Amino acid sequence: MHHDLDERLTHAQIAWFSSVRPDGSPHTVPVWFIHDDESIWVASAPSSRKVANVSRNDRVAIAIDGSAPRTLVAQTSVELIDDPEEHPSIVAGYARKYSGYDLTDHSVAGPLVLMRLTITRWLLDGSAQ
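and the corresponding structure tokens:
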């Protein structure tokens, strides 16, 4: 991952997460996210529409920093992870990026699952178009 892309993924606060509903129509919502060298990570309530969608169809598009002249858009596959505590570095990363937000604190939003997004193809990688 080149430095500019890494920097933008680190600082962007919101990504737009697009999954496929059972009827084939798109479902797009803003999400908080973090990234590591291999993946983009999104936490969600297990009962959410996006989790239901990816459990049926793991193809997702993610758009980051969409208002910038050099937009980031990727196609990804998704793996659902039931227990965020299995990935302490991701829990710590969320807390760092989002003012102490604790993925493991069920009193905030109930229990959460993690979605590990593996980029299969950059559609727009931030380079000048």
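(Above: one complete record from the training split.) Strands lie at 15-20, 26-31, 34-35, 39-44, 59-64, 72-81, 113-125.
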